[in-house]
Amino acid sequence: MTDSAGRQRAVLVDVDGTLAIRGKRSPYDWHRVGEDQPNPAVVELVQTIAAAGRHRIVVMSGRKEQCRRQTEMWLDAQEIDFAELILRAEHDDRPDHKTKADLYRRFVAPRYDVAFVIDDRNSVVRMWRTTFKLTVCQVADGDF
């Protein structure tokens, strides 16, 4: 489905703390992201949305670009049918809410009409709601 500007309807989904549970690895241990465990309820929700065919799944993560291959493999292993994976640049060390706002403006808003966001982190959820007036399904209390 598309809007009047030709943008595709989408659901924007976070990875860490949302689709994936990090477990014992450090959040900066990028080479081990493939070890993360799925968050079963959120994975099932995203699979259901994708299967309905009304929205594209756009995955946006604060992970760095070096994690692309492992993250794509992890998403495929969870049978997440995603249209696009958007990651932060290698040298982007800004807080997640600033990075994601920039990524949204550059890569998402011009191409997708976002129905809602699925995320966990309080500062990012606040940004989606206040800056972009998006509806957010917050799946955990991400107070960090």
Low-confidence spans: pLDDT under 50, at least 5 residues? none
Order of helices and strands: EEEHEHEHEHE
Number of beta-strand segments: 7
Distance between the termini: 36 Å
Q: What radius of gyration results from the CA coordinates?
A: 14 Å
The number of domains is 1
Reported CATH architecture: 3-Layer(aba) Sandwich
Write down the CATH topology.
Rossmann fold
Neighbour order of strands in the largest sheet: 5-4-1-6-7
Name given to the CATH homologous superfamily:
HAD superfamily/HAD-like
CATH class: Alpha Beta
Count of alpha and pi helical runs: 4
Give the rounded overall mean pLDDT: 94
Note the overall shape. Answer: globular
Protein name: Polynucleotide kinase PNKP phosphatase domain-containing protein
Pfam family, one: HAD_PNKP
InterPro entries: HAD-like_sf, HAD_PNKP, HAD_sf
Domain Polynucleotide kinase PNKP phosphatase: 9-144
